[in-house]
Input
Amino acid sequence: MAIANRRPRVVIIGAGFGGLEAARSLSRADVDITLIDRRNFHLFQPLLYQVATAALSPGDIAWPTRSIFRNQKNVTVLMCEVSGVDIQARTVTDGTAVIPYDFLILATGAAHSYFGHDEWSAFAPALKTVDNALTIRERLLLAFEQAELSSDPDAGARFMTTVIVGGGATGVEMAGAIAELDHRTLLGEFRHFEPAQARIILIEAGPRVLPSFPEHLSAIARASLKSMRVEVRTGVSVTDCDAQGVTLTGGEKLHAATIIWAAGVAASPAGEWIGAIRDRAGRVEVSPDLTVQDHPEIFVIGDAATVRDVDQHPVPGVAPAAKQMGRYVGRAIAARIRGRGAPAAFKYQNWGDLAAIGRKSAVVSLGRFRLTGLMGWLFWGAAHIWFLIGFRSRVVVAFSWWWSYLTFQRGARLISDRDRT
Output
């Protein structure tokens, strides 16, 4: 690498948890960083489901990327959508601009996978973007408005039914939040039906919800959902999805006006850009130092990469893992620039798994330490507030949660005038 009379150029694609942490970890390095994202903000995805269920507004969990790096003078933020990488010329492009790099960090994340049925996305939006969250929120609220107008009992039953596909943390948290919205927040606001009669059905193809958690915590989560009148179906898969609802294995049809997809992920096309070896989900197979085979100047982190821990178990696609990878890559690049030895292979520190189930229940697994119920919920809330960016966001989110806890109210229940599909 010939870098004469200039500072090394580090290009980071993706302003998610991994990309932000990589840029921050290079704050004191003698490099020029270009941080590229197709959006102008960083999104705190773990709380996106609360936007979808009207507990929070998008601005509570999103921050302009430029403001985050206002005082880090070695970072330039660009808003564009990268469409390709030239690994020979060491440049990235959005089809118009060409941006050179000496080190490239791909932190492009992942999208939900519909297992070969991408046409289902029109009927069952996933929860990865603010637009998706707002679409889900409007469908949930609009379904009740349509139920109030309907004189057909069958149509009314469909409007009052929500199906969530996927029993991981996102699906479980979504089910609990919708149960609160339907069975608590909306009580007494309609005259022709009772929102408490709404059906919420959680579908998981595996034998239990929260499969990454210890089995007894999974059982507690299922019991909590049941107490909130969520119907949990395990061991069944969705075989078809349309505007009327979903079809399950065995041919059972669930008629539902609102379908939410929380099952399966597929990596971004970053692996295709660089021609790297990828797994079935499209994630790049990286070396122990998170570099791409034969290209030590290219790092892939977060949901875009397949990473294994010291026991050869896959590292989960969660925010703490992405942040750890970002910090590691920052240290590795800084060490190379200073002519020091590379750090030891990346080692993931699993600080635990958390999932909230409604307003006063959560399951927390931190090694041998376990919390459930209200204490779990308090711990879950404190952990999420800690990871929010900025004092204002922490205060706003904390106040919103406590207000909702005391009053059962949700302040973001708006149905916009945008196109409703």
About this structure: The radius of gyration is 22 Å.
